[in-house]
Amino acid sequence: MWWAILISFVFVIAQPVSAALKKCEGDDGMVHYYAEILPPECEDKATVEMNKLGVVIRTNEAKDKTLPVVDKAQQEADEQKRKEQQRRDMVLRSTYTSEEEIDLAIARNVHPIELNIIGIEKRLEIVLTQLGSLQQQAEKAERTNSPTLPAIKEDMLPVQRMVDSLRKELAENKERIIRVQAKFDVDRKRFLELNAQDE
Asked: Which residues of 140-156 are buried (b: 16+ CB within 10 A; e: fewer)?
């Protein structure tokens, strides 16, 4: 008789273990049981599988919910940029009350450069006249084989250097005007954006 009991016991133990019940602990601390369909509370949680006798047969670890790596240096740079923009916005709001004031500021900043350009152009005109005169003298001396030709060419060198210098200075001042206008265009655009936000 005991052989029959032993054989039955061995037969039960040798049967394939099938999971009858599973459980997990939710964020709220409550234990949730289920058989087949995973409840929402068990999403990404560690689960325990038990056989029909309630014996734990398998433990499944919680899915790794690693957060994306945060670039602290980038965060700090973004925060610094945001603070700098706030500071500029405050300065812009305290400096101008209308778009017309921005136009006046452009005129105030451009006018001295324009006066400088006028002065450079006048000086350039004078130096070009001097250079033209020397070139004519050089051509005449060359035609007549005059011994003064080397001296004239030597006199032309500093005048030519002055012409090149004035032309460079003129180009730089014109570029300055473009930069000033571009800067105020950025200010104007941001000023209008801030006004639109206030409305």
From this structure: ebeeeeeeebeebeebb
- Structural domain contains residue 82: no
44: left (phi over 0), alpha (psi -120 to 50) or beta: left
Q: Residue 27: which domain range?
A: 15-60
Same domain, residue pair 131 and 181: yes
Do 95 and 168 sit in the same domain of this protein? yes
pLDDT at residue 120, as a whole number: 97
Any idea which of 5-9, 159-163, 177-181 has the lowest mean pLDDT?
5-9
Look up residue 94 and give its amino acid.
S
Structural domain total, the chain: 2
pLDDT tens figures, 170-181: 999 999 999 999
95 and 53 assigned to the same domain: no
Q: Is the pTM higher than 0.90?
A: no
Residue 190 burial (CB count, 10 A): 15
Quick one: 53 and 136 in the same domain?
no
pLDDT at 47: 80
Return the higher-pLDDT residue of 3 and 42: 42
Q: Are 19 and 58 in contact (CB under 8 A)?
A: yes
Whether 123 and 193 map to the same domain: the answer is yes
Edge-first strand order for the sheet with 47-50 is: 31-34, 21-25, 47-50, 56-60
Extract the tokens encoding 68.
């994306």
Residue 65: inside a domain: no
